[in-house]
Design brief:
The structure is a single chain. This protein is mostly helical. It contains ten helices and no strands. α7 runs antiparallel to α9. This is TetR/AcrR family transcriptional regulator.
Amino acid sequence: MAGPISMETGTARPPERPMRADARRNHERLVGVARTAFAEHGTDASLEDIARQAGLGIGTLYRHFPNRHALMNAVFQDALCSLLDRSRELASAEAPCRALVDWLGAIVTHAGEYRGLARALMSASQDETSALTQCHLPLREAGAGLLRRAQESGSVRADVSIDDLLQLTNAIALAAEQSPDDPELAERLLRLTLRGLK
């Protein structure tokens, strides 16, 4: 029996099969090595080196992850889940504006763990074809809920958009990345953001 119909071509697509055990192990090995490489060398770490350190060929890496953003998306799924969990925790906080800024601070902290991530997230927000859009969209939805609550409470201006806030947050992370000798920079910039939101 044919798989689902592709909306783009009108042809039947084969149904997705679960990964074989060896393929799943290779996938997990690549993600683990990439997580370490991105933390140590930034998100522009060599994909060839990642494949080699995982004991695999570059072709195997590209079979699992067709491009760098796809690999980054896989690496950052745990952090994405944590950020989404945090947004749910903050959804009923007494001070909605502070909750929003705390959540934005958690994004800055996460982005700061991987040199180059903030820049990649900024570019992905403008590129719907990027695999990182799979990270951006759930964050955007979670942030929009926190922003809406803060606006409804009257503590945040009505003309503030979640897209602007996420770009600003990534810009803060990028500024902090470029100023490693000033560990308080991100917090100061977030405080300025809080003042500007009111």
